[in-house]
Amino acid sequence: METGQVAAGSSAGVTNARYDRRGLDRRRTGQPLVSVVIPTYNEAENIPILVRRLEQALADLDYELIVVDDDSPDLTWQIADELTQAQPRLRVLRRTDARGLSSAVMAGFGIARGRTLAVLDADLQHDERILPELIGAIVDDGADIAVGSREADGGSYGEFGPWRRTVSWTGAQLARFMLRTPVNDPMSGFFVVSRARYDEVVDKVNPKGFKILLEFLATGTPPSVTEVGFKFGQRLHGATKLTGSVIVAYLMALLELAGGRFVTARFSAYAIVGMSGVVVRALVLVGLSLIADARATWWLAIEAAVLWNYWWNNRFTFNAYRQRGRQSIVGLAKFHAVAAHGVLVATATQSLVADLIGSESLLTVGVAATVGLGLATVGNYHLNRSITWQALPA
Ligand code: GDD
Ligand code: MN
Hints:
Helix content is 52%, strand content 9%. The chain is an alpha/beta fold. It has two domains: 234 residues, Spore Coat Polysaccharide Biosynthesis Protein SpsA, Chain A, CATH 3.90.550.10; 124 residues. α4 links the parallel β2 and β3. The longest helix has 33 residues. It binds guanosine-5'-diphosphate-alpha-D-mannose and manganese (II) ion (MN).
């Protein structure tokens, strides 16, 4: 632990002294060909196996390995540090004041010295044997980014269950839709970037959540990308950290990439939920009108949409402030009050605008209704943010 451990942020002391004394590889090329960053959180059992496999896969190359551990309770950082005795190319960065996959990767890249910068998961799900090909795509063929891809020739999702497959697929579709560079597996956590690309985007990336590759793809000028297939392996030890909240964070980050310049991701999420509520209301209206009387149907449809909107805003838009149990009963009551206020604002604005235009054409009604709905959405968003969820401004 003595040699490798440092507090996050200070790069002094990070350097494993033995590395420099031996002058490994640096003598030959000035800098290693590749720095492989391995983010870890509770990977104590996997990290010794991975380091051994990387030594084999990279045997002919100048490389360095950087483990970035967020102070894992299972002491991954300590196990990794013990490995530096036998492997001086390995350095360990132990962060005690930060957490998160993307920020860990950026911290590792920040202290890396390689001509190319690679990242792969510690849990042996990424096939390290394709690393030389990924590196070659950059140094020999001039790509900016080389992606270990489950969607390229020879690639597959392995034993992924239907749920994880759907999550990955949906995330990839959304990302593809928003990227200017077509990439088949933009969700991959296994990739190599050139130092030039890293330098171009380093100050602009937003290191939140799990979508670090997306940042490298979407920021700056469109990069040239090569994908190399690999079969996604089974996790041997430990558990995944990709939970529901991580998926929500990913969706929010996509919204920020898409519209962040104009409105906040949170507002985009709120607006999307609102639009889905309109659809729900229409469906309930049609469905119930077959069996119930018109007046009851009208109210039931509104109530269904309000419940729907509350649930999704609670789970998605304001996920960080999610209400559970009794809290959500109070939250739901407030949400109803705000919704009622929204209906008033929308109808009042609509008739005001219609009066101002002074005609009763369909176009006028449409414009007036849209203005009313827009105003109510913006107003309700702010009311729900401050009153219902009491969220910090964003
Ligand atoms: N330092 C650090 N801090 N490392 C972390 C953290 C963190 O907060 N969270 C996860 N990691 C490490 C894990 O220890 C592992 O080495 C790697 O990041 C990936 O985490 P997993 O929890 O195994 O993720 P996954 O297998 O569910 O997700 C993989 O596939 C996704 C696409 O399907 C990853 O490769 C993702 O990057 C990828 O988007
Ligand atoms: Mn994994």
